[in-house]
Amino acid sequence: MDGISEHDVIGAIVGEGGKAALLGGRAVAIACGGEVPPPLRRHSADIDIVIRGKDRKALKSGMAKLACEPATEFNLLNGKERMIFFAGETKIDVFIDVFRMCHTINLGERVGLHPVILPPADLLLTKLQVVRAERKDLIDIAALLLGSEIEAARITKILGAEWGFWRTATGTLDTLRAQAAEICGDQALTTELIQRIDALNAQIAAAPRSMAWKMRAVIGERSTWYELPEEPDAAPA
Amino acid sequence: MSVNFARKATGLVRQAGAKDVFVYNVNFINIAIGVAFMFLFMPNGSYPGENIYLSTILCTLFVLPTSLVYAMFASAMPRSGGEYVYVSRAMSPLFGFVASWNYTIWCFFYIGVPAAFLGKYGISALFRELGVNLGSPAMTTYGDWFNTPFGTAMTGSILIIAFAAVFIFGVSLYMKIQNFTFVLASIGLAFTALVLFHHTPADAVTHFNSYANQFTGSKDTYSDIVKNLGSGAVTEVPFNLKQTLISMTWPFTVLGFSIASAYIGGEIKGANRSQLIGMPGSLLYSAFWLLLVSFVTLHAFGYDFLGNLGAVNPTAVKLAFTPTFSELAAALTGHLWLVIVIGVSFALWTYAWLPIYILTATRNLLAWALDGLLPAKVSEVNESTHSPLFAILFSSILGIGFLWLYAYDSAFSTISGFFGQVCGTFILTSIAAIVFPYTQKDMFEGSPVAWRVGGIPLLSILGVLSLIGMVTIAWAFLNDPQSGISFSAPFMIYVNAGVFLSGFIFFYGAKFIQARQGIDINLAFMEIPPE
Fold first, then answer.
1. A97 touches chain B (CB under 8 A)
2. Is residue A236 part of a domain?
3. Rounded to a whole number, what is the distance in Å from the CA of B11 to chain A's nearest CA?
4. Contact: A80, B387; criterion CB under 8 Å
5. Per the structure, how many domains does chain A have?
6. A interface mutation test: which of B8, B13, B20 has the most A CBs within 10 A?
7. B491-515, pLDDT tens digit by residue?
8. Percent of chain B having pLDDT more than 70?
9. What is the DSSP letter of A110?
10. Using the 8-state DSSP alphabet, how is residue B530 labeled?
11. Which of B530, B493, B431, B420 is nearest to B101 (CA)?
12. What stretches of A15-164 adopt beta strand conformation (E)?
């Protein structure tokens, strides 16, 4: 089945009594209310969603109704936290309760706070956690900062709890700040983006830090503070 | 330029890292059980003229190519299933299945065997050590119970159920447990080695007699042992290369299995580096420890003592069961805390094969079920725990069955199953390694291990060396009077052959059943491994 949309996927799960929230590039576009400035618009081929663990059954029924094919072996080995389905050429990447990449974010309780997508602050966290940020990640962060209402308290709470995540996130923001002009391609947009980055950085810097954060900070970069995800080797059954 | 990295997909953080892989493989080798076996069975006069150190070193050299073959295959095809994946791709689905079937059936058996070891070698000795040190004969008697067939089987059954429960909650929980217990067991082994190093036969035998007096009632148990053996008492004889080669079966029982992580290849982070380091690295690390602990054990007690202790029927001298090197070390110290460290750490080593065999068998069952060779039910996951409940329970129940068989039937109290794994699985995988660069040229060339030496693929060269190594090990098993494998008493040869050949019957049976339902399982095999 080709031509499937994120709304079809979310609708199918909700139709089976579950809840799901969109993340990734498609969610960023929705979070920005369709008003993403042209330089920050991008096409996202995959559909990324997060569900709660208790909604696995609804996910499977919903995907079956949409005639999506599961990546059977991948789902068998990784299905506790992750599943992949295919709708023709479109890959549907499902995170279950937890988003485990360069850093781990518990997202189960954040599903359902917004009708379709994860709250923008969580979308931003999923992008800030990327250690080796690509252009598409930086574009998404820029779009979120410029086009959505970010709940800064959520960001500062997460980054104040874990030094490693703080290190990566602030590093990613620094990278974006340095490349803001190239990414925005527009002076006014660049200035606004830099102001937003600085404001967020100021809030992060002023936020309280946990004891674990302070203790880990002593070790600093002498010990690796992130995971490096690999390509998931998945194919339909 | 802003584009620094190319990430094609969202990414996946796999469950087991390089450290987990290393510990997993060292546990599957099992250093302490290796040393225990070597001293229980090697110097007892069965191999006159053998040299324990040379036997261990030669065994390491013979199995290293096999370890490297599995590591390179795991790097080229980072999938779960081990030789099922490798041999299927390199040779044919039939041989891939048969190699995997053969290994898996013996896995079920060896889920039971290490479960028995906990009671038989671990808890029994710990209770006796505590009984002696606390002056509690009742505790020593409890220890003897753990060494009985019923005690062994009951303890092992509880252990298998406990590990099945752990796997139902997930592999990551097991990895945390294994890493924690590995540290404790390793610290204990280091203490054991230190205690042994500080003694020589001049005082160690006196300590042993004093220790054994508490439960044998004899003031000179060692003299009783020598008297009981009479003309069969062991004395060191001049070096004999053939006997040294034959005795490699004992170090092989542990060193031959540095390949455990191949079966969970799809769940390992950075498979290329982790597997290439984890497999041969764990082999060399364990071989070093085997040599070190063997050295300090011989340093403390001497060859003759250890040989006579291994040769005597323990019940004939009121020992109830033969002390391992660990219990001998505990006998040398009067410090209760050290006795506990030595005893508990050894008990932690005894069963280390068990969970890994459960995981291996489970992964192989899943791989077969996904390809239609077993009912789909086997690969179903439980909705609440999200674990392959059926496969775990199936493996565990079979393991418990084999545990009771092992505990009560002396025909299975041998290492003969390893012979089957060598002949039916490792030799086939070695052949697969030789042909893989030629039958799957594109996959080999695209892999991270497309290395050549003098224009010849290194994997093929290692395949030849592995084949030579495994044939030599098979020869040792056939000539070893204690291996349970012999042409003069061929029962276990028939069992081994039966296990191997039944794989062909099962494959064609499954193919026939699926064909009647209109399913061509050859199509499934074309998808191994999906890329």
1. no
2. no
3. 5
4. yes
5. 1
6. B13
7. 889 999 999 999 999 999 999 998 8
8. 96
9. G
10. P
11. B420
12. 20-23, 47-51, 69-70, 82-87, 90-96, 98-100, 104-106
Which DSSP string corresponds to B215-244? HH--S-HHHHHHHHHGGG--------HHHH
Interchain contact A100–B (C-beta under 8 A): yes
pLDDT number for residue A229: 87
CATH number, residue A37:
3.30.460.40
Nearest residue in chain B measured CA to CA from A59: B383
Given this model, what pLDDT does residue B379 score?
A: 83
Residues A106 and A98 sit within 8 Å (Cβ to Cβ): yes
Chain A nearest-CA distance from B269, in A, is 8
Q: Which of A72-86, B249-263, B300-314 is the least confident region? A: A72-86
Interface of A with B in 180-199 (CB under 8 A): 182-183
Angle at B196 between CA B143 and CA B130, to 5 degrees: 25
Q: Each residue of B226-239: pLDDT tens digit?
A: 999 999 999 889 99
Predicted confidence (pLDDT) at residue B177 exceeds the cutoff of 80 = yes
Q: Distance, in angstroms, between B432 CA and closest chain A CA? A: 23
* CB proximity list for A63: less than 8 A, separation 6 or greater: A9, A12, A70, A85, A92
pLDDT at B449 over 70: yes
Angstroms from B529 CA to nearest CA on chain A: 9
Is residue A84 situated within a structural domain?
yes
Q: Tell me whether residues B78 and A233 touch, CB distance under 8 A.
A: yes
Q: Is B380 exposed, middle or buried (0-12, 13-18, 19+ CB in 10 A)?
A: middle
Residue A230's pLDDT is what?
Answer: 79
**Cis peptide bond N-terminal to B529, omega within 30:** yes
Domain membership of residue A93 as a residue range = 6-222
Confidence tier at B1 by pLDDT (50, 70, 90)? very low
Query: What does the pLDDT read at residue A236?
Result: 53
pTM to 2 decimal places: 0.87
Distance from CA of A114 to the nearest CA of B (A): 22
* Strands A69-70 vs A82-87: parallel, antiparallel or unpaired: antiparallel
Question: For position B526, what pLDDT does the model report?
Answer: 61
A151-165, A198-212, B76-90, B249-263: least confidently modelled range: B76-90
- Whether chain B has a CB inside 8 Å of the CB on A132: the answer is yes
Residue B41: C-alpha distances to residues A173, B52, B410 (Å): 64, 11, 16
- How do the residues of chain B divide into helix, strand and coil, expressed in percent and rounded to 5? 75, 0, 25
Chain B residues interacting with chain A (CB cutoff of 8 angstroms): 2-14, 78-80, 170, 266-267, 269-270, 366, 370, 379, 381, 383, 386-388, 527, 529-531
Give the pLDDT of residue A235.
56
A230 belongs to a structural domain:
no
Q: Max Cα separation, chain A?
A: 52
Q: Of B329, B349, B347, B325, nearest to B338 (Cα)?
A: B329
- Answer whether A76 sits within 8 Å of B388, measured CB to CB: yes
ipTM of the complex: 0.71
Asked if the model's pLDDT at residue B2 lies above 80, the reply is no
Which residues 22-81 of A have a C-beta within 8 angstroms of B?
A: 24, 46, 48, 53, 56-57, 72-73, 76-80
Q: Which of B12, B84, B366, B382 is best to mutate for the A interface (most A CBs within 10 A)?
A: B12
Q: What are phi and psi of B274, to 5 degrees?
A: -60, -45
Contact call for B10 and A46, based on CB within 8 A: yes
Residue of chain A whose Cα is closest to the Cα of B378: A76
Q: In A, which residues are within 8 Å of B531 by CB distance?
A: 233, 235
Instruction: Give mean pLDDT, residues B418-447.
Output: 95
CA distance B252 to A216: 44
Nearest CA in chain B to A177: B2
Q: What is the CA radius of gyration of chain B?
A: 24
Q: What is the pLDDT of residue B527?
A: 54
Assess if residue A82 is contained within a domain. Answer: yes
- How many pairs of residues across A and B have Cβ atoms under 8 Å apart? 84
